[in-house]
Amino acid sequence: MIEFAHVTKQYPDGTTAVDDLDLRIDAGSFTVFVGPSGCGKTTSMRMINRMITPTSGTILVDGRDISTLDAVQLRLGMGYVIQNAGLLPHRTVVDNVATVPVLRGDSRREARRAALDVLERVGLDLSLATRYPAQLSGGQQQRVGVARALAADPPILLMDEPFSAVDPVVREDLQAEMQRLQAELNKTIVFVTHDIDEAVKLGDRIAVFGRGGRLQQYDAPQRVLAA
Ligand code: ADP
Ligand code: ADP
């Protein structure tokens, strides 16, 4: 479980990005943060893995205050997927995915085998595994990004607009893949998007953010649509 308790983030220039956020994200849920640009979705997500520190308030993961945990250990338990995949350009696809298992202490050989398994799972054609990221399409790169986040089998997956840079047809494909993975993996997924259709399609809980970084609604998708 991930719990925000009165969390506020104010940037040094005075911008209040997140205002008094109170939110409990159940283990195993697919929670979507949705809302217009600039309403604090990314800031909220990045506070979960401590890329950003709250100005005030507390974030608990499985009942533990994350400010007391080792940041590296915390992040090893959380896959993170961003818009343009963020792959290492000078490493092959398989080595990009093997990076985290190697950091976690697996041998290179074990890590590569695990990487191929997870690449297959996200639907990548394995003949692409020895290519470099620049030799893949945007959609293929995003699949690799998802595979890399899943490679260490973290209980939590953070996804920040992972599919917004790919064309609509590929996006539908990736969304369908996510639904399948969610059913199969039973992870806690937090997913950021500005697209309400995507939010409703993927999420089982929707957190609607609004101006000033305030949470406006937190509910099941059909109730959010009815509001
Ligand atoms: P969203 O993900 O909903 O687009 P963000 O969390 O990125 O929103 O940003 C929330 C607010 O904080 C916006 O007004 C944004 O301009 C501001 N902001 C984000 N990052 C910084 C920063 N590093 N310094 C100052 N303001 C920032
Ligand atoms: P180095 O560290 O020697 O510069 P790199 O890790 O950049 O090597 O790349 C390893 C090999 O893969 C090199 O032979 C390089 O030319 C080739 N390579 C890297 N990126 C690409 C790419 N986008 N397309 C084709 N070949 C690539």
Automatic annotation (TrEMBL):
EC supergroup of this enzyme: translocase
GO molecular function: ABC-type quaternary ammonium compound transporting activity; ATP binding; ATP hydrolysis activity
Residue ranges of domain ABC transporter in the record: 2-227
UniProtKB keywords: ATP-binding, Nucleotide-binding, Transport
EC number: 7.6.2.9
Family affiliation: Belongs to the ABC transporter superfamily.
Protein name: ABC-type quaternary amine transporter
Originating organism: Antrihabitans stalagmiti
Residues of the full protein shown: 1 to 227 of 385
